Amino acid sequence: MLLVRSAVATGEYASSSEVIRDALRDWTHERSLRQQGVAELRAVWQEPLNDKTPGVTVDAVLAGLERKYQAMAEAGEFDCVMIDAARGLCPSREFPQPAF
C-alpha cells in the first residue's frame, strides 16, 4: 500500500484506484503475453512429434561424424582424431576410452 500512496503523493496518479487499475492492466497484459508464449512453445514442441518423416539412425550419424573427422585429420587439421585414438592408432595422443 506504501507504493500506491507514494505514487499518488508524487502526483504520478490522481487516486489510489487509478494506481490499482493501471497495475491490473499491466498484470493482465503480462499474463496474456505469458499465456501466448506457452501456447507458442507447445506448438513448437508438437511439430517434431507430428513429423512422420523417418529420422536418422545413430549408425548413420556416427558414420558421418567418422567421415568428417577422418577428412579433417587427412587434411592436417588434427594430428589424430578421437576415433583413431579409440582404435589405438594414435600412440602419441591419449584419449579417455568410452565406458560402454
Describe this structure in words.
With 100 residues, the chain is mainly α. The chain folds into 2 domains: 49 residues; 40 residues, no CATH class. The chain is built from 4 helices and no strands. The protein is elongated. The relative contact order is 0.05.
Structural class: mainly alpha
Gyration radius from CA atoms, angstroms: 30 Å
DSSP summary, beta strand count: 0
Distance between termini? 62 Å
Strand percentage lies at: under 5%
Summarize the biggest pleated sheet: none
The total tally of domains equals 2
Low-confidence stretches: none
Order of helices and strands: HHHH
Helix content: 55-70%
Mean pLDDT over the full residue set? 84
Overall, the morphology is elongated
Outline the secondary-structure elements.
Blueprint: H1 2-9, H2 16-50, H3 58-74, H4 82-86
Task: Please tag this protein with its features.
100 residues, mainly alpha, 2 domains, 4 helices, 65% helix, elongated
Give the gist of this structure.
The protein is an all-alpha fold and 100 residues long.
